[in-house]
């Protein structure tokens, strides 16, 4: 048995198949992938990696399994899946997910291959575990898959606490010890035992508060959009394909972006934190509904149109349209007076937090500081935005007389 | 300048009038008053005192004043008020508040006297501060009183974090550093500066989650009700009056309860944690509306009636009817797009949390373990409760055939 | 199984005999005994109790037993002993230990009685455990007794971390998780496994740094000496005997001291933190060796002599002579290259810390602020102190010309 | 003023020249340099960077300056120096220091150039600060330079606490708040005020315990030695020179090591954590004294000789000879009874910790797992080691009969 010191869970004991998986190149790669990607440009201490998070998820899975009385081969499978659940992540974690998924097709297939091949596959087979089954657990399939990926999964419990610890933002401090201990199976579905409505709510609230403060902080979104744009250029202008990209770590990608002519400017901006700023920051309600359903190509079309209208280089306009807010935790199961209920049936908080999320749902148009006014004006016109409220304060505060007139 | 080590804020620097107030008997008494009263019977680590909390409130007040640019005599007054804000608390803090206020009349007058008399008054006058003005600040009056007592007061910021630290329940971990720094005055009203809707929400959420988990935990409520009952008996059967009670510390009251024949049994039960249990735990909706507005006498009448009906000693029935839930934080002011808004106008969370609070609002009837069934049955009948849902699971689980029939 | 939330170890699961012991009056009494006695007059947040500490010791004992592979009845015994280890403590914990032991004889016999009688005895027998055996374990006897009381006991591990957490002084933050996990038995003796010399040193260092900063802080020593003196008067002037005292909790003793004429002045001083100050603070080297070995009567004789010489009331002079410094941890066993060695054989730190402890070993003479000079002068003369270095700075700084001459 | 959230100091307020320096490429580069280099291969959470550390040092410098009453231009200079103090660090922080210094000459000159040139120079001059002066402060020169670099510098205070926080090893938790506040100047020398011998000792002890547990952990040393070897090869086989190396960040170096044929194998080993192991781990006393003073060339000569003797590729032998242990903190100044003393004159701990450090001083010979025995044997012979105690347990445990004979 190996004991690893962790800044969140203190000591993590690792044993059996997990112990052997630890030494595979696939898992070691996660040491070099930041957990929160560009969020570290907002919170400088947020340099934790997918590797330590994977250890944390494994640790909480072990505790959950013990509480649920799951042992033997069954537990081994869940533990392996917990440790491996992020092994398919590309560089900068979720930052480039949309990009690589668009280009490589389903993420799930990719994880299947990753677990079947290479050293991970060999270790799994050595321990008489079928890679296919582990991949299904990673995808949250089946009774036990819910522990790894689902409304009450240990992934969420670890990342909330870990991200809070490393950013210094206290909102993610849930009572993971209690949550893990109170997990139970009712009719094959994972639920929180009687008396845990508040615990379930606290999980929901933690994510609802971490979202705008950390995960969707405007500067994190801007830098992520810049990174995504740069990486698209890399894929278009070099022999790097989406599959290769997916297997890189952060250092690989940084190095390629620096050394590729087409991406060197974005790379410099990211390195020096010389970022684009918001030309437009609009509630999505203001936006013609169609844009959300738009495919990637439509969005690029909008960007080009805005750039043309504003008379600037197309590389200077980024249109950032986040997906419709979702709230997985709202369907968490909780036992109330002996019955299993979905949290959203039970808690008035669910609806309120969903409403809050929608009210924070913003479309952004970003460009270099010098062109904010021109780009903002064009974007309002091209996207047909309701002008009132659409331009962010950075622009508004610096409005010259002309724009003031324009806005009136 | 004196530096005091605090387990929450690390180092607290204390100076000027506050430094001198620290040595007064009135403030030193707070060392012997538990911050959370009987909550320590649920959370054994929750033994922090009003004294350390007062230091914490003073510390946050100093930070707030610095951020607001308030200096000199004006700052001295607020600092004194912050340090003294709990000086009027009787033993077991809020546990006996209702009792003493009922008997002594307005709390406010009492604080006025306390600050004007004795060593506190002498110290204040030595520093050219008028006790009357400080008492007004303690009561939250005037522009600067809001810092000490109001929707965004530093009292709340300290107790949430401190209670979380000492109970081990993480829900109270707000970002007090940010909150204090973002305070601003708009048209004489204390508000959070632009961009702090989430900060305001986090404060609200913290209290909403701490409430059922800590402050209104059923065992804390039961033991508090027992302590209140015992103290009433003490006032009735000895020469201790409400005013004397108010000046006691926890040790005084414990000793008197132990040595008074009429209260020795309650005292033993509290000492040995041999507590009453819930015979009824009913949503207040189930209850004839009138009971909430009932005065103390009506409630005692109900208790006696239930006891008679159940054939038990009246001392074995406690009816606990909490006040209508309130949510001070819902009217916090936040600057949004340049305008000051009340949080409830801005955040869908306010309504949801208020609804959640109402749904957790419970009336309790408590009695010794051996008589739960009889007392529960009588209480349902006397109070005219809707039977369904009114009896708590402890009773229900142990129901004999008779009661099962009764419930059907 | 019951789960208790603890501010240090987060969740403590308690089961079996320990679960039942929890509800005994003997254990519940520990809720009302401060862990650090008068230390809270120096560190206002240090209000933790023997009860939460007992839970922590139980928790670490469970972890140690699991690591050592001890199960069944054997483990039950150690767990019971861990939970009960402080059940014999009187009010204010160690503060009055010397006093009660002097008067009641051996502490050990007392614990034997406590565990055999009352509800604790009944619970133990219900679980087929012999009170006698548990009392031996509490005394550190036998192979497994070392876990509860010995150089590497879990008592020490809990109190260092807990006292650090509650005082805010970081020096006690040892790696208890590692220490507990690395415990092993070699030839029936408890030792730390190979590779843990630093771990053992860290335990030693933690206590060496906590000692002067917390446990023997001069203000804690003064207030403890005042409490001891008051309690002696109580025993002399009332029907309270040492045995009754030993069964009191803090509230009992506070109340008795307040209501007894002979002790009311000391009580007032402690309540208002209006403490004696140091008239003399002398390295013990300066002191005629004999004083250390002196019995209690000799010390009282000295006090009277000083008071007479200074012309003050004998109640105004306290002579505080701490015992010769000891360092239990210096004999901790550690496995080094396969052999068990005592830490003092292995680590140069042991000697250095011992030397440091001796250099901090101070005799104090305390009296009310107004008489420091007179009492200090008399004490120097009566005790035959080397004048240079004997008077504390408080006195020295306020020296008038006369005393300056005297000192020259 | 900008406020940055930090996981250690919570909120850091940054203003004036520091605020402007923050946006320079030179400082932003530190975001991509791990604070502890290869230590993250031992402690997976230790991914904090020189950037957040620099912010922390700046923060503590501000607090120290406030306490010392230093203001205006003088304070600006020290604050700038604090923020910039690590700007000269190359990739992997101290890991490659010896290497780059050997090749670039004096580090100090380099910092002078760095501060005078580029955007940092421009910002400094904009604020009327002379780069030369700031570089002197970074080097610890002059009265105020001691705050930035010296026995009691804020650099040390930040890194101990930060490294403890991120590794999870508690030994570094010093009371930095107290240390910073107690700094004072006596005759132009920085010292801790009266009553702080323990504070000074705690700083010393913290580093003494962090050293073997974190900074010089054997796996951290091995991986560091491998990285150093790889980087030497890079410098020999490519156009990268020491100066270019010094300006790289971690990602740059990782990418170059991966893409250079001569270093790809070391790079793979580091990426996959497939590390060399200890063939020899000898107390330096066992070693011919001369080796310590040996220059780099002599050590390489030894390595080649061992490889030849063992019949293995020279790339498979690394001889790691750490410098003679030093203990800067031993000369910290503390005021004792009004006089300034060096800590080593005052505290018996200094000598003991120095002795402990010497007893932990080890020479290592590392090689791939398959050749440990052969390399170990040759190293013992080539270096003329005292055999007893020289071979590490990994080797010893796997000894075949031959080696057993050899050892006898």
From TrEMBL, chains A, B, C, D:
Q: Which Gene3D superfamilies match?
A: Hypothetical protein af1432
Q: What one GO molecular function would you report for this record?
A: dGTPase activity
Q: Show where the HD domain sits.
A: 50-160
Biological-process GO terms, alphabetical: dGTP catabolic process
InterPro entries per the UniProt record, alphabetical: dGTPase-like, HD/PDEase_dom, HD_assoc_2, HD_domain
**Cross-referenced SUPFAM superfamilies, in alphabetical order?**
HD-domain/PDEase-like
The record's PANTHER family line, in alphabetical order, gives: DEOXYNUCLEOSIDE TRIPHOSPHATE TRIPHOSPHOHYDROLASE, DEOXYNUCLEOSIDE TRIPHOSPHATE TRIPHOSPHOHYDROLASE SAMHD1
> What is the designated name of this protein?
HD domain-containing protein
Q: Provide the taxonomic classification.
A: Archaea, Methanobacteriati, Methanobacteriota, Stenosarchaea group, Halobacteria
